[in-house]
Design brief:
alpha/beta, 7 helices, seven-stranded mixed sheet
Length: 264
């Protein structure tokens, strides 16, 4: 099995103009590609520091022959043109109702069965951590992994935020920046498989995924990660949206862009 012909053709068309733009904007440093599973679908879990992260990760995966499929807000599928493109390239709509959640799961299963990559940001939105380390996560990636048995591939990326800082109004292209991507070994979730999908199980599996991402990011940054993960609720911050509050700081220009479309 594999990506349907129509979807692959649309990916090829989009890549024909997205890749040259990305190559012009940023140099690339990609490591760990050999750790990507082959011949199987996978759940890809990157850290999330700026709105252009999905393009960076999608670019990386496409170049490795893995078709990138994001969990996208269901409302985007109603937008003219954009909605049609999302459907053709089989992005996965996220709906909040029980019936909608079942449809999302089935769509994700189909992508995984065709050896595609489902990209889920475990943090659910741009990190609130003022130092841009992964913050406390949501359980969507862990839930999908335990429901489907698909391998979870952690990815750390760093550098795109220098081109477009978190919630920025403009790009910073000069001097030229470098987008760095590091792939880790699939996360071992074997101890959680077969267990009831309780909050305790899902939280523990999510922490395991975030630990793997944080370790990779520490290697990329050449720094020690904080011993305690940033928790927006404990810092009186909202978990989504542009207003990160005084305790959260800001790594870029004043807020203006909307939060990531990745969902958990």
């Amino acid at each position: 099995m594999g990506e349907p012909r129509g979807s692959r053709a649309m990916f090829t068309f989009l890549a024909s103009w997205v890749r040259p733009v990305m190559n012009a904007m940023m140099a690339k440093e990609w490591r760990g590609q050999e750790r990507l599973p082959r011949g199987t679908g996978m759940i890809v879990c990157p850290n999330h520091v700026t709105e252009i992260d999905p393009i960076v990760v999608g670019h990386f995966l496409y170049n490795q022959g893995v078709m990138p499929h994001f969990m996208a807000k269901a409302s985007l599928f109603s937008v003219p043109v954009i909605g049609s493109i999302l459907r053709v390239i089989r992005q996965v709509p996220v709906e909040r109702s029980s019936a909608g959640a079942n449809r999302s799961l089935e769509a994700a299963r189909e992508v995984l069965a065709d050896n595609g990559g489902i990209i889920i940001y475990p943090e659910g939105t741009l990190t609130r951590d003022p130092a841009l380390w992964p913050m406390k996560g949501r359980t969507g990636a862990a839930r999908l992994a335990l429901q489907t048995g698909a391998p979870v591939v952690p990815i750390a990326q760093w550098g795109a935020h220098e081109v477009f800082p978190r919630y920025a109004r403009r790009f910073h292209l000069v001097p030229r920046k470098r987008a760095r991507v590091l792939v880790g070994e699939p996360v071992d979730l074997s101890e959680f498989r077969g267990a009831p999908l309780t909050r305790t199980t899902l939280d523990a599996a999510t922490e395991r995924i975030l630990d793997a991402i944080t370790e990779l990011l520490a290697e990329l940054r050449g720094e020690l990660a904080p011993t305690e993960r940033w928790d927006p609720a404990a810092k009186q911050q909202t978990s989504t949206g542009r207003d990160i509050g005084a305790t959260g700081g800001n790594a870029g220009d004043p807020p203006s862009a909307e939060e990531s479309g990745a969902a958990s």
